[in-house]
Amino acid sequence: MKPGLHTVTDGRGLLFGGDYNPEQWPEHVWEEDAALMRAAGVNLVTVGVFSWGRLEPAPGERDFAWLDRVLDLMHGAGVAVDLATPTASPPPWMGHRWPETLPVDESGTTLWYGARNQWCPSSPVYRARSLEIVTDLVERYADHPAVAMWHVGNEYGQVCHCDLTAANFRRWLTARYRTLDELNTAWGTTFWSQHYSDWAEILPPRTAPYIVNPSQRLDWARFCSDALLDQFKAERDLLRARSDKPVTTNYMGLFKPVDYWSWAPEQDIISNDWYPDLADPRFPARAALTHDLMRSLAGRKPWMLMEQSTGAVNWRPHNLPKPAGQLRLESLQAVARGADGVCYFQWRQSAFGAERFHSAMVPLAGPDTTAHEEVRAHGLELQQLSAVAGTEVRADVALLHDWNSWWAAEERARPSDRLSVVEQLTDYYYPLWQRGVTVDLARASSELLAYQLVIAPSLFVLSDEDAAALTAWVRAGGVLVVGPFSGLADPRGHLHTGRFPAPLREVLGMSGEAWRPVDGDLSCSWRDETGFNTSGFRARDWTETIRAEGAEVIATFDDSHSPAVTRHEFGAGVAWYIATLPDADGLSALTTRFLKDAGVEGVLHSLPPNVEAVRRGDLLFLLNHGDGTVSVPFDGDAVDVLTGTPLHDGAQLAPRGVAILRQHSGA
Ligand code: GAL
Ligand code: ZN
Q1: pLDDT by residue (tens digit) across 322-367?
Q2: Short-list 259, 289, 262, 260, CA closest to 274
Q3: What residue's CA is closest to ligand 1, atom 12?
Q4: How far is 435 from 416, CA to CA, in rounded Å?
Q5: What is the rounded CA–CA span in Å between residue 667 and residue 660?
Q6: What is the reported pLDDT for 666?
Q7: What is the mean pLDDT of residues 447-467?
Q8: Spatial CA neighbour of 530 closest among 596, 593, 600, 601
Q9: For range 53-61, the mean pLDDT
Q10: Helix or strand or coil: residue 48?
Q11: 452 preceded by a cis bond (ω within 30 of 0)
Q12: Ligand nearest to the CA of 108
């Protein structure tokens, strides 16, 4: 069997632990760490993420002795190690001796050492030096019994605009376009006299007097994601050549610079870092959306939460702590949505450095703290859930999200910068989440047969092939919902001519002719005969002038009386188009209709506000994100697997409480 998350969870159950940076502490503290880890049920720690300078104090020198002791200690304590390549933060000697390894921003400013992440993905020196240290690391530890998996780099996202990168960008473009003519056409260089007569003229988008060519920038975004993937793969291949342990790198959720769809197949384990903003009223739903994305990237299989925080982070302007119960709630939310590991940044709070004020599993105040007690209680509780590892989450609904389209949709100089791809995604996700409808993320090119309902909140770039596939899928019985500003551009970023959205016009049974951003919000009314029982809804910022061409008009803009929402019965399926940004009530009412068309229901008939419900394997997770006690009704009998309490027809949830139920009958 291929190495994967199961390789790590087999015999261990759900993974619990965190980033462990013992190099920040004298060795006597390590002993205490090991004892505390055991007591807290820690079974996995990530070691060495930022230890390049400690492993290679000067170019070519090696000091592995301390790491030997750390790994031996962890092994003795029964804690497995996710051993990291240290390549996210080269030591100062690298930038000092080889300044070309330092990244350069759009304006030509060098980003110096003194923080982290200061490396250029195109630098041959960085590449060579990083692969040397990775080679020595894997040589030394491939067979160490503590090592259960590999962690490459950290949160890839570096970008560099230097001349070395320019040369690599040209190579990448040559492979994509073959000829300069092709490139000139793709970039539309007849505009503003941008014609290239020689490959050598081509540059990364650098600071320029005015708006830079959007097709150039789109290819640049693709290239940057690929260039980082290349570094990841180079390190991964060294690990794989010498070790059969699974390899991961940690993602950052809906992180724009890196196309995780193209990365995911290259990894043995999908892992993510998630730090909710507690000041955001929708943060629990955003967490759920992000977790669903990770599960989807993992091919609808388990993934792991590599980093979260036990309390406050230190990098927002004002860092809210987590109330009691919150860390457990967030962690179990990830488990409910397919995580087989819930780990933290970091094990022990740093006393020095840029993250002194970041919470940790062991705060500076020590283990005799409520924070650590919560950690320990949670770790021990997870041991009761070991049978959850490996089980799957099923979804009938897919939300489409595509990095290429995201990049292109948010270029400068568009009709309105109030259209945000992630906000639209969240807006459509929210009412599904509230209803306990489980959602996968997918792309238009994904296999969609498993789904009854597919929602594309924002799909600015859509190739003809993908549009044809969506059309065929609706014809065969699928229910498709398309949000505004979709189906407008081809993969080069060129807009289609004719009424929009050209490639979806047939399936949607409507077409449009103009974008009409508005200031603030405006009212929309449901058409009488459509059976919506509210008078209407409000929409904000954005309208389009569209007409029905076979579709039924469901709602109209009150100012123009032109259609705002259309619904088209097409073949055996239905296709909706939403020509605006409806408010939460509007989207909620619409979601009820989408679900009805698709014959999809939530996991329970009704859910109180702030309660999340999701089924994983044969367990039903109920998570109360609210501050009050709530009862959640369900039919039949169940047993709470954490407490062993039998339940009839419903469960009581304390504030931030979680119930994990095995149901006997009904649902
Ligand atoms: C992550 C990073 C960690 C740590 C953490 C703090 O982005 O991977 O190393 O910096 O944030 O929240
Ligand atoms: Zn560079």
Answers
A1: 999 999 999 999 999 999 999 999 999 999 999 999 999 999 999 9
A2: 289
A3: 313
A4: 31
A5: 14
A6: 47
A7: 98
A8: 593
A9: 98
A10: coil
A11: no
A12: 2
In this prediction, residue 665 carries a pLDDT of 59
Note the maximum CA span of the chain.
Answer: 78
The SS3 of residue 365 is coil
Residue 394, pLDDT above cutoff 60: yes
Cα 145 to Cα 86: distance, rounded to the nearest angstrom: 20
Whether 485 has a pLDDT exceeding 60, the answer reads yes
Q: Quick one: which of 489, 518, 513 has its CA closest to 499?
A: 513
Structure tokens at 118: 């200061």
Best mutation site among 51, 320, 345 for ligand 1, i.e. most ligand atoms within 8 A of its Cβ?
345
- CB-CB neighbours of 567 under 10 Å: 25
Counting ligands in written order, which one lies closest to the CA of residue 165?
2
Q: Which residue is closest in CA terms to ligand 1's atom 5?
A: 345
Residue by residue, DSSP assigns 413-471 as SSS-TT--HHHHHHHHHHHHHHTT--EEEE-TTS--TT-SEEEES---B--HHHHHHHH
Task: Please tell me the distance from the alpha carbon of residue 386 to that of residue 461, in angstroms, as a whole number.
Answer: 42
Nearest-CA residue for ligand 1 atom 3 is 345
Confidence at residue 667, expressed as pLDDT on a 0 to 100 scale: 44
How many Å lie between the centroid of ligand 2 and the Cα of residue 124?
10
Q: Which residues line ligand 1 (CB under 6 A)?
A: 154-155, 273, 275, 307, 313, 345, 355, 358
**Is the overall model pTM greater than 0.85, yes or no?**
yes
Interhelix angle for 180-187 vs 214-242, to 10°? 120
Task: Tell me, in angstroms, the distance from the centre of ligand 1 to residue 313's CA.
Answer: 9
Residue carrying the six token digits 């001796």: 97
Which residues are CB-contacts of 178 (< 8 A; sequence separation ≥ 6)? none
Span from the CA of 315 to the centroid of ligand 2 (angstroms): 26
Could you tell which of 151, 277, 307, 314 is best to mutate to test the pocket of ligand 1, judged by most ligand atoms within 8 Å of the CB? 307
Condensed to tens digits (0 to 9), the pLDDT of residues 101-141 reads 999 999 999 999 999 999 999 999 999 999 999 999 999 99
- Tokens for 350? 């740093």
For residue 163, give the ligand nearest its CA.
Answer: 2
Ligand 2 centroid to 62 CA: how many Å? 26
- Cβ partners under 8 Å of residue 96, min gap 6: 113
Identity of the amino acid at 13? G
Q: Report helix, strand or coil for 600.
A: coil
For the cut 90, the answer to whether the pLDDT of residue 530 exceeds it is no
Q: Which residues are catalytic?
A: 155, 307
What does the pLDDT read at residue 531?
83
